[in-house]
Amino acid sequence: MGNEQHHLAGEDPKQGVREAAGDPPEPPQGIEKGGTGIETDKHRCDDATGTPRRDVDAAVRVGIDGKCLQPPRAGVARYLEGLLQGLSELGASGLDIEVLQPERPRRTLPWVLWDLQRATGRGFELFHFAFYYPPLRPRCPYTVAIHDVLVLEHPEWFPRAWANPIRRLLPRGARRAAAVIASGNAAAETIAARCGVARERIRVIPYGLDPARFAPPDTARVAESVARLGLRQPFLLQVGSLEPRRGIDLAVAATAALRSEGRQVDLVVVGEQRARVVALAAPPPWVRLIGRVDDADLPALYAGAAAVLAPSRGEGFDLPVLEALGSGAVVVASDIDVHLEHFAGAVETFRSGDARALATACRLVLDDAERVSALRAAGSCLAARFTWRECAQRHVELWREVAQR
Fold first, then answer.
1. Is 242 in the same domain as 313?
2. Is 132 left (phi over 0), alpha (psi -120 to 50) or beta?
3. What is the reported pTM?
C-alpha cells in the first residue's frame, strides 16, 4: 500500500492543512431535511468462538468507513473487501456491522472530518476506520488500520508531502485510538516510532488472500488472457501503481540487462501512473504499460509471467506478492523488511535499490528449473496461511475487547 492511499484525489492540499488544523470543513453533500448523505450496508457476523448466540439487541454495533470501496479503488479497498468477505464467512449474530459510504462522489478529507465525525455519534459502540485516520473528535471508541507510514518516513517519495493532511491526521488519530491495526511487526514498529503510540496498543493482523480468486489457473486460461491482452511470452511482470518508490526504474534496468544478453524477455507493467517516473518517460517497445486490468485476469498474468517482480523500496505489506504466490507465480522481491517478514523463503530476494542485483536474481529463476520448482512449492504453502477469515476473526476479537472496556 502506498501513494494511492496517501494522495487524496482531487483535493487541494492547502485546504487539507487548513481543515486538519481545525477550521470548519465544507458542508456535507446531500444532507438535507435530516438526511445523512450516507449509505449503509448492514452485516451480521459471529466471532466463531463457540460463544452462545446473542440477541440482536445485545449485538455490538460497529461502524466501518467504506468509502475506499468506491472508485477510484486502490490497495485499501483490497483490504476492506477482504475483511468484509471474512466477516461474512464467520457466520451470523454477535456483531451488528454497518459499512458507511457516501451517497454521491465525495472527497476523502471532508468525508472523514465532517460526515464520519457526525456518524460516530449515532449510537455506534465502536467505529473502525480502514483508511489511515479518523475524524478530529470521534464520539465513540475507534480502531484504525494504518497500512504504512511512508509519507512520514519518506516524504520525498510523495509530491507536495509537506501539505499532505495525512502527515498531521495519521499520528494524531493513532495516538487517540483504542487500538491501531497494522499488517505486520515491521509496520507496527515503525508506526510506534513515528506516531508515538505504545507498541502494546498496536495489534498485528496480517492481510488475507481469497483462494477462490487467486489460485493457479490452467494453461488454457493463461494462454487466453495473454493473447487477449496482446502480450508475448516470456515476460516479467510488475503489478501496482506506478510511482518512483515502487522501483519500476530497477525493473526497466534489469530487463534491459537481460535483453543485452540476448534474452527476448518483455517487461509488462500493470497499474495506473500516480506520479512521474523518469524511466517511463520514453519507454522502449519491450516495456508494455497495460494500465489497470480486470481482477479476473490477474491470476493468469501472474502465472504466465517468467517472474513477478516486486522491487519496491518501501511497502506496508505488498498484497500483489501474496496474490502472485497464491496464483502459482515465482516472485523476485526486494529485501525490504516487510518482504522478509511475510515472504522469506518463498520468494527470490535481492538488495533493495540495486538494479544489477535484481538482474542477477532474475537470471537465477530464469535459468534454474529446480529453484523455480522449490519456490513455487514454498509460495503455495505460504499463501495458504493467509486467509481473510482469520484476518476477520482477529478484527472481531479486538473489537469485542475494545467494546468491553
1. yes
2. left
3. 0.85
